[in-house]
C-alpha cells in the first residue's frame, strides 16, 4: 500500500497565510481567553507587516509533530493489516493450485473455491482503496487543524494590545515571498506561543 505520510502542503499553507489579512489594531485587552501571552515578538515594522516561516513552524510545532506521529502510526497499522490479509490470501491460492494440480478436488469444488478466492481478492482490493481514502481524509483534516490553529493564534495576538500588525505573511522556500528582512521575522516567537497554547490543551 502506498504510504500517505503527513506532509502538510507548505505551498498551500504559505499561500493562505499570505492572503490571510490580520487587521491587528492596538486596542487594550483585559482578557486573553486562555491563550498564551507572547512577550518576545519581533519589532513591528512601520507598515505593520511581519512574517513567519512555515517550514520552520512545521518542524518545531508540537501539535504538528504529534499529529504526524499519530497518522504515521495509523499508516503502519493499515499496512500491517493489508500485508497480513494479502499473505493469507496468497497462501490460500497456493494451496488451491496445489490441490488442483494433483487432482485432489473435483471440478465443481475447484470452481467453488476459485470463485471464493476471487471474491476475497476483490474484497482485499476494496479494503486497500477504502484505507487510502480514509488516510487521505485524515491527512486533509490534519492539515486544516494545524493551519487553523496557526491562524487562530495569530489572530489572538490582537487581544494583547501589544501589536499593530496589519499583515502576517507566510514564507517558505520557493513560495510567494521571495525576500523579507529578518527584523520582520516573528517565527520563533510564534512557535513558542503555539507550543504554549498546545501544551495547555494537552494538559486538559
Biggest sheet, strands in spatial order? Answer: 1-2
Poorly predicted runs are 1-39
Count of separate DSSP helical elements: 5
Approximate helicity band: 55-70%
What's the story with the biggest beta sheet? Answer: 2 strands, parallel
| Terminal Cα span | 36 Å
Total discrete domains: 1
Q: Tell me the number of strands.
A: 2
From the alpha-carbon coordinates, what is the Rg to the nearest angstrom? Answer: 26 Å
Percent of sequence in beta strands: under 5%
Structural class: mainly alpha
Shape: rod-shaped
Helix and strand pattern: HEHHHEH
Mean pLDDT: 80
What does this structure look like?
It is a single chain. This protein has 204 residues and is mainly alpha-helical. It has one domain (10-203). Helices cover 61% and strands 5% of the residues. The protein has 5 helices and 2 strands; from the N terminus they run H-E-H-H-H-E-H. It has helices at residues 10-19, 54-60, 62-101, 107-156, 187-203; strands at residues 49-53, 167-171. The chain has a two-stranded parallel ribbon. The longest helix has 50 residues, at 107-156. Mean pLDDT is 80; it is low at 1-39.
Amino acid at each position: 500500500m502506498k504510504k500517505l505520510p503527513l506532509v502538510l502542503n507548505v505551498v498551500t499553507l504559505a499561500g493562505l497565510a499570505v492572503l490571510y489579512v490580520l487587521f491587528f489594531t492596538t486596542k487594550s485587552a483585559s482578557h486573553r481567553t486562555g491563550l498564551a501571552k507572547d512577550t518576545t515578538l519581533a519589532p513591528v515594522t512601520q507598515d505593520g507587516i511581519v512574517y513567519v516561516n512555515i517550514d520552520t513552524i512545521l518542524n518545531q510545532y508540537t501539535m504538528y509533530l504529534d499529529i504526524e506521529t499519530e497518522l504515521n502510526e495509523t499508516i503502519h497499522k493499515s499496512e500491517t493489516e493489508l500485508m497480513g490479509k494479502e499473505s493469507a490470501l496468497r497462501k490460500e491460492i497456493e494451496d488451491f493450485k496445489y490441490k488442483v494440480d494433483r487432482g485432489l478436488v473435483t471440478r465443481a469444488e475447484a470452481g467453488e473455491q476459485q470463485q471464493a478466492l476471487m471474491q476475497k481478492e476483490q474484497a482485499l482490493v476494496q479494503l486497500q482503496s477504502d484505507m487510502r481514502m480514509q488516510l487521505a481524509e485524515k491527512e486533509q483534516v490534519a492539515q486544516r487543524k494545524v493551519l487553523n490553529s496557526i491562524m487562530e493564534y495569530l489572530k489572538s495576538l490582537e487581544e494583547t494590545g501589544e501589536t499593530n500588525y496589519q499583515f502576517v505573511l507566510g514564507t517558505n522556500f520557493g513560495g510567494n515571498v521571495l525576500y523579507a528582512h529578518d527584523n520582520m521575522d516573528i517565527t520563533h516567537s510564534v512557535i513558542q506561543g503555539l507550543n504554549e497554547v498546545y501544551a495547555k490543551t494537552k494538559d486538559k
